[in-house]
């Protein structure tokens, strides 16, 4: 199966580039990038301009779940997203310890909860002035994962274990079985998506900032999820997941204190939406905080199989 060619995301450049904290920066076939180096550990970030996309899945997508109501989302502000999940080396440099089960400096940190990730963000922001690190919103995450695609995966209609680290014994669409590694792999060791982001599908589930809740039924701008909840969103699937759970639209959710060897995260940079910027709610969602976006129509989902 052919890997996608680099396709830089269209849109305006950031107001300031490079940032004062950047150790190196540049432009390549995927677009603008800049890196943070902290205690000798480097993390690259890629610029994702403002844009709009269809979040969720179409009703005819194979293995679709009933919480994937397709709706238009407009992101009015660009943001930087780490090109890979947070590594064990960066976690160790910031936190002074490593909770991971599958040890390796270039492997993603895992066995971390949403609460742990928040502590990491606070500490990192405390030692790197002006960084504004945070977790991505669920909408930002799917926007980045899709990278302009509308197929179940950024690689197309299906995936292989050579592209994604998942349990190849359970392929998507009942395809031929393949490799099941049974562990994480080093970040940026598998092909990138069209925007230069690595392992958005598989390897480790990635915590998002949002509480889990129903999607709004109409178009929205800059959604940030419900204001309250019991479970936080995770995206992308993991080394342990069946192929269907690595889809761009699939939503997983756990209590924020939950941690195990399939849970990690990826950093985003940029100011979070403040409460006074959240000018309303998307129509019909269970507490989805968002601003109404112009255009677009309602698309209803159908019932699907229960998630893992």
Question: Could you characterize what this model shows?
Answer:
- The protein is of the alpha+beta class.
- It has a single domain, classed as Alpha-Beta Complex (paralog of FGE (formylglycine-generating enzyme)), CATH 3.90.1580.
- The protein is 10% helix and 21% strand.
- It has helices spanning 88-95, 114-127, 138-146; strands spanning 24-28, 31-38, 41-48, 51-55, 71-75, 79-82, 133-134, 205-211, 220-225, 232-235, 252-254, 263-264, 268-269, 289-292.
- It has a six-stranded antiparallel beta sheet with strand order 1-2-3-6-13-7.
- The model is unreliable at 274-287 and 291-308 (pLDDT under 50).
**Major beta sheet summary:** 6 strands, antiparallel
What is the count of β-strands? 14
Termini Cα gap: 27 Å
Structural class per helix/strand content? alpha+beta
CATH class: Alpha Beta
String of helices and strands: EEEEEEHHEHEEEEEEE
Shape: globular
For CATH, the homologous superfamily is named as paralog of FGE (formylglycine-generating enzyme)
- Placed side by side, the strands forming the largest sheet appear as 1-2-3-6-13-7
Second rung of CATH, namely the architecture? Alpha-Beta Complex
* Proportion of beta-strand residues: 15-25%
* pLDDT averaged over residues: 90
């Amino acid at each position: 199966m052919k890997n996608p060619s680099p396709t830089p995301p269209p849109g305006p450049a950031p107001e300031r580039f490079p940032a004062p904290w950047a150790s190196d920066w540049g432009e390549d076939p995927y677009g603008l990038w800049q890196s943070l180096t902290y205690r000798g550990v480097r993390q690259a970030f890629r610029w994702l301009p403002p844009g709009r996309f269809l979040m969720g899945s179409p009703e005819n997508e194979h293995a679709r779940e009933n919480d994937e109501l397709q709706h238009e989302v407009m992101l009015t502000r660009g943001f930087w997203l780490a090109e890979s999940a947070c590594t064990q080396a960066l976690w160790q440099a910031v936190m002074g310890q490593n909770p991971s089960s599958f040890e390796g400096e270039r492997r993603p940190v895992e066995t971390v909860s949403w609460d742990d990730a928040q502590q990491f963000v606070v500490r990192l922001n405390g030692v790197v002035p002006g960084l504004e690190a945070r977790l991505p919103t669920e909408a930002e995450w799917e926007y980045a994962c899709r990278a302009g695609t509308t197929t179940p995966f950024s690689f197309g209609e299906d995936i292989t274990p050579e592209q994604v680290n998942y349990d190849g014994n359970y392929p998507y669409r009942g395809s031929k079985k393949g490799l099941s590694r049974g562990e994480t792999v080093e970040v940026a060791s598998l092909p990138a998506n069209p925007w230069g982001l690595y392992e958005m599908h598989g390897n480790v589930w990635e915590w998002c900032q949002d509480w889990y809740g129903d999607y709004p039924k109409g178009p929205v701008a800059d959604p940030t999820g419900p204001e309250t909840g019991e479970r936080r969103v995770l995206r992308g699937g993991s080394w342990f997941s069946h192929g269907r759970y690595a889809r761009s639209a699939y939503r997983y959710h756990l209590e924020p204190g939950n941690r195990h060897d399939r849970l990690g995260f990826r950093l985003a940079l940029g100011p979070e939406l403040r409460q006074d910027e959240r000018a309303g709610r998307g129509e019909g969602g269970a507490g989805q905080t968002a601003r109404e976006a112009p255009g677009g129509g309602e698309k209803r989902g159908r019932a699907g199989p229960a998630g893992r």
